[in-house]
Specification:
The chain has one domain: HUPs (Rossmann fold, 3-Layer(aba) Sandwich). The chain has 6 helices and 5 strands. Helix content is about 40%, strand content about 15%. The chain has a 5-stranded parallel beta sheet, with helices on both faces. The longest helix has 14 residues. By secondary structure, the protein is an alpha/beta fold. The chain is globular, with a radius of gyration of 16 Å.
């Protein structure tokens, strides 16, 4: 069976084991002969969604994700919330959503169909990841560490 082209996306601001688990699962969907393309959120997208800039700028985040062996290609996404442009450009067989990504699968498929794009959208399961597997929790732990003069309680 031929592999699939899978598109995964995220902020990947502070790369952690939860991100690795997500990308490994997306890679499994692609198959051995498939391709995993990862879309990195623009800095402006993170500011719009989070209200604060990312810790690492978009090109650094892209290079970090590109360096992972499960990833075939990492690209920076486009401005705005409409995913049809990037999906049209890369023509994936599957879009892999993380278990914690807030996109509505049905709404995303409808939005893409309105642009003439039919693609499977799959919400991946949560997999256990050793250690901290949330960028938000990692940031909070760093802040706590420095607020407590180098000790974490």
């Amino acid at each position: 069976m031929a592999g699939k082209r899978v598109l995964a996306a995220g902020k990947f601001d502070i790369l952690h084991l939860g991100h690795i688990a997500y990308l490994e699962q997306a890679r499994e969907l692609a198959g051995e002969d498939g391709e995993l393309i990862v879309v990195i959120a623009r800095d402006s997208t993170i500011v719009r969604e989070r209200g604060a800039p990312p810790v690492f700028p978009q090109e650094q985040r892209r290079r970090l994700v590109q360096s992972l062996r499960v990833v075939d290609k990492a690209v920076i996404g486009y401005e705005g919330a409409d995913p049809s442009r990037i999906v049209t450009e890369y023509r994936p067989d599957v879009i892999a959503l993380g278990y914690d990504q807030r996109l509505d699968v049905e709404k995303l498929q409808q939005q893409l169909r309105s642009h003439g794009i039919t693609v499977d959208v799959v919400r991946l399961e949560k997999r256990s990841a050793d250690g901290l597997s949330s960028s938000t929790r990692i940031r909070k732990r760093i802040i706590e560490y420095y607020n407590n003069n180098g000790t974490v309680r």
